[in-house]
Every structure is written in structure tokens, then in C-alpha cells.
Amino acid sequence: MYRPWREKYATPILILESLLVFTLLLGISYLIYIYTLEKGRKKEALRNLRLKHEALTLALEGGKTYAWCFDGKTAVFDQAFCELTNRSQNLLEIKEIANYVHPGDQAQFRKNVSNILHRPRRTAQYRCKFDDTGYQWWEFRYSVLQHYEQNPIITGLLVNIQEIKDKEEELIRARKLAEQAELKQSFLANMSHEIRTPLNAIVGFSNLLTTEKNISEEEKKEFASIIDNNTRLLLKLVNDVLELSRIESGNMSFHCEDCSAHHFAETVYQTHQVIILPPVEFIKEFPDEDVTIHIDRMRLTQVITNFLGNAKKFTSQGHIKLGYFCDKEKKEIHFFVEDTGAGIPKEELQMIFERFYKRNEFVQGVGLGLAISKVIVEKMNGHIDVQSEVNKGSRFTAVLPYL
């Protein structure tokens, strides 16, 4: 078909067609270039990713750390974990993982798994046995990536923390040794001071009695009384230290027997009637009904005597009351000593049972009585209660079970 316009515009058409082909070739070349460049970038990125993965794998293996993923039913572990456990498959069900967990931790493990999406803490520690080294401490760390109603997806790390646990135990042992060393040093310092005080009085007044000729009979009686009091104090100190050593070695002996609560309390009261004198009134408060108690009479007497001795030291007026009552619902008997003395500040109530603790350094005593009393009462399956108010008085109660 004859087209005169084509002959007329043959040259421009040829130029346009050539430009179109050139543009097309240029576009294809550019696309090929972009593709090649992107392919190189992807290759480099994959290479870097592979290197990072290998480095991460080495780091995890070196740190005894293994990656895992959990879908609510089964967990997928990395290849390194399979090598650790000599498994051919990296898929494990919960019951299979539980088999690695120490029997003492399995109940907590199952509980944590059932509440895994609702636990505020994203870590859990268990004793596990994955290889021939025996049970070691492992920590599961995880995070929830997706949460569907029926198919939660959780990823995490399994980290061996046995070395951390070992270090913690070493620190605890070191701290205990340091505390023991500090206690021994404090003990020696206190003993040196407490022994020296009565000894100086005994030696000093004994020398006065033997060397001084111009001493009246009244002064001799006073000096003899001072020597006697300090001798008794020194004897009590020695006895307390012996008791303390028995406590430390676990050799404190108990000889419990059945006895009447009323008879026991009355005996203690009669003994102290000649010790607690006016202006302080010594009164008793015993119930009419008697009960049978199973106690070591000597040890419990030691406790009540300590309560009464402390009350006597800090009570200058008012009364000191010895009593007991029964709590039938709890099957407990409460032996108490109540006074109207100086009282104890609230912040010091927990400190009074510490060894060598003394509220008043000028009051006789070494500060061991309450510490020893606490151990004695606890050995008889009881405890000590303390109620006190400054300038109003205190009440110490030994609470014990009864038959």
C-alpha cells in the first residue's frame, strides 16, 4: 500500500525508531545493571548474614547458650542443642523437655509453661541434666513475638548459669566466713572487757581487805559484798559463754519431762521473792486451772530467770509480774514477765536478741541472756514475744506448746 507521507517523513521516522530502539536497549542495559548490582548486594548481604550467624553460633556455643522457639505445643531448638543432648531431631514436646528438668523443679516448670504468656517475668531458672555433667542450673529467657488465641509463638534462649550460681555460693560462703570472723573479733573484744571489769573489782577490793588495816567492819562487809557480787557476775559470764559454745557446737542438751505448769511457775516465783525487793512489788498472776507441760525444767527456769533479771535491772518502781495463761485453741501456754520499767524503743526490739547487745553499757551483764533464751525456747518448739513501750515497761513471753 502506497503511503506518500512515509516517504515524505522517512528520515524523521527512522530517527525516532532508532531513538526508540536505543532507549529500549539503554533501559534493558540499566535494568541488567541494577539487577546485577542488587544481586551482588544480596550476595554480599547473605554472606555477611552467614558470617554473623556463624559468629553468633560460635558465641552462643562458647557461652553455653542455645536458641529455641515454642508454638505452645512443641519447641524447636538449634543444632548446637541437638549436639549437646545427642538428639537427632530438634523438635521437643513439653514432656520431653520436662524429663531433662530436676524432679524437684518439674512442678514449677509445668506451672510456668502453662502460664507462660501471663508471667510478668520473662525468665525462669531450673536444674536440668542435658549431658553427662549431671544437673546444672539453666535459665530460660524468652519473648512473645506473636500471640494468637490458639497458637502463640515464643522465641528465647537457653543459658547455662551454673558458673553464676557457683560464684553466688562462693560469695555467700565468703560472706559467712567474714561474718564469723567479725563475730569472733567482737566476741573476743567483748569478753576481754566484760571479764576485766569484775576481775578488777575482785582483785582491787581483795587487796584492800588484805593490805589496809584501818578498815571498819561496815566497810569490810561492803567490800565483801562487792567481791561476792562480782564473783557471781564472773561465774554467770563463764556459764553464759559455756552455753554459747554448746549452742555453736549443737551440743546443748535437753531433758524434757511432764510437769505441772502451776507448780513450775510457783517454784520460780518463790525463788525470786527474796531477790526482787521493795520498793518494787513482785506479784504473780496464775490461772486456777492447771495444765501439764512437757519441758526441760532447768532450761525454762533459765529463760524465766533471765526475763526476771532484766526486769529487775530496769525497774526502779512499780511492779514486776510473773504469770502464765493457756490458749486452749492453739494448745499453747504463755509464761510472761511484765514490768513497769524503762521500756525498749521499737527500733531496738529486734536487736535485743543479738549476742552482746546491751541497751545500757553501765548495767551489769554481758548481753548473752536473751540470745541464749531465744535458742532454748525455740529448741522446745516455742518462741519469744516481746511487747514494750518506753517509760511504761516491757512484757516478755515464752510461748510453748502443752499436752
UniProtKB/TrEMBL annotation:
SUPFAM superfamilies linked: ATPase domain of HSP90 chaperone/DNA topoisomerase II/histidine kinase, Homodimeric domain of signal transducing histidine kinase, PYP-like sensor domain (PAS domain)
Pfam families: HATPase_c (PF02518), HisKA (PF00512), PAS_3 (PF08447)
UniProt KW keywords: Kinase, Membrane, Phosphoprotein, Transferase, Transmembrane, Transmembrane helix, Two-component regulatory system
SMART domains (alphabetical): HATPase_c (SM00387), HisKA (SM00388)
Gene3D superfamilies (alphabetical): 1.10.287.130, Histidine kinase-like ATPase, C-terminal domain (3.30.565.10), PAS domain (3.30.450.20)
Entry superkingdom: Bacteria
InterPro entries: HATPase_C_sf, HATPase_dom, His_kinase_dom, HisK_dim/P_dom, HisK_dim/P_sf, PAS, PAS-like_dom_sf, PAS_fold_3
Transmembrane segments: 12-33
Catalytic activity: ATP + protein L-histidine = ADP + protein N-phospho-L-histidine
UniProt enzyme class: transferase
Protein name per the record: histidine kinase
Organism lineage string: Bacteria, Pseudomonadati, Bacteroidota, Bacteroidia, Bacteroidales
